[in-house]
Amino acid sequence: MSTLRFSSLRPLILDRIGSSACHPRFLNFSRWIRTSSHKSSPLAFAFDIDGVLIRGPDALPSAKRALTLLDGHNRFGVKIPYILLTNGGGVGEHERCRKLTKLLDVNIEPSQYIQAHTVLKSVVQKYADEPVLVLGGIGDTVRKVAEGYGFKKAYTTLDVLAWDPAVWPLHKLTDAELARTKTVDFSKTPIKAIFVFHDPRNWALDIQVACDVIMSSGIIGGPYQSPSNYGSSTGVDLVFCNPDLIWRSDFDRPRLGQGAFRDAFQAVFKSLTGTTYPHVQYGKPTKPTYDFAANVLKDRLVEIHNGQITNAPAPHVYMVGDNPESDIAGANAAGWNSVLVRTGVYDPSQGPPTHIPTREVEDVEEAVRWAIDNEFEKMGKL
């Protein structure tokens, strides 16, 4: 990640969730749990989604049982707060929560849901009135997401192709695609940034247009600049929201993710120019994403307590994920407890995980039961 040109992209970092279990207010936990009007939980969860709660279009059976435990149906009768933290995306947060609510049979609020590009809400002010290119997703869906965040001039590569079909003659727009495009003269519209919101559907088109934008300092079809100017203040910002090389769907083997598209773009760009292009990387396991998640979890705790801050210390956070490279690496770096499940990307038959979790379990239900027992045992409740 570039640390010079892109420092203004990083979200504001507030205090990290987490405090010591030996806080004085926890010295007599049994008395505290009886007298607290909110029955505050000593732990909270952050869950990955694909490979942890769902697999392809279906919910994993263990997921529904795990979420039931968090709703207070555990032997301690305590509701346990949680957020969902995924490198997925491509649709608006409200739409995704609606689908997850139906799939998991539990109410999922947008205030507890973070997808790969949600963090872009923290940088929208810089680009609100600037032309930007948004990549990924189906049709113009990510454009609508970007506009919902506050990007007023968000364009897609299909808009570029509608402007001049010769940009990429190997793809002819369908009537449905054409109907979703905006009429723009890109020869007079300098693109200031490229945001890869979600996994692109047409890698060839998107790589071609991204190279055109960057190599001509934002004017598609304009003269190419010298590679020595790419890092100048007039350059185009490039932001990827998901570093995952692979992810788990309902196919028997993991599928290529946005991280693979990033690597493909950089390989082509280097072949053209002799250098890779500096970029900002969001998504798990990056620090900005985990800092953003910590703040969302903090807000969630205030929300479930009706805007009141309880006297109890902040709960210990448990990240439950299936990908050692993103879920476990990020949680470990954030100082969270990390729990690795075997229902997704991670396959124990291929060797030990590249990043060692606090605990390795079979599925999310086992993860939740272990974490609850682990925390309440510390409090002398078992």
TrEMBL record:
<protein>
    <recommendedName>
        <fullName>HAD hydrolase</fullName>
    </recommendedName>
</protein>
<dbReference type="InterPro" id="IPR050324">
    <property type="entry name" value="CDP-alcohol_PTase-I"/>
</dbReference>
<dbReference type="InterPro" id="IPR006357">
    <property type="entry name" value="HAD-SF_hydro_IIA"/>
</dbReference>
<dbReference type="GO" id="GO:0005739">
    <property type="term" value="C:mitochondrion"/>
</dbReference>
<dbReference type="Pfam" id="PF13242">
    <property type="entry name" value="Hydrolase_like"/>
</dbReference>
<dbReference type="InterPro" id="IPR023214">
    <property type="entry name" value="HAD_sf"/>
</dbReference>
<dbReference type="GO" id="GO:0046474">
    <property type="term" value="P:glycerophospholipid biosynthetic process"/>
</dbReference>
<dbReference type="Pfam" id="PF13344">
    <property type="entry name" value="Hydrolase_6"/>
</dbReference>
<dbReference type="InterPro" id="IPR036412">
    <property type="entry name" value="HAD-like_sf"/>
</dbReference>
<dbReference type="InterPro" id="IPR006353">
    <property type="entry name" value="HAD-SF_hydro_IIA_CECR5"/>
</dbReference>
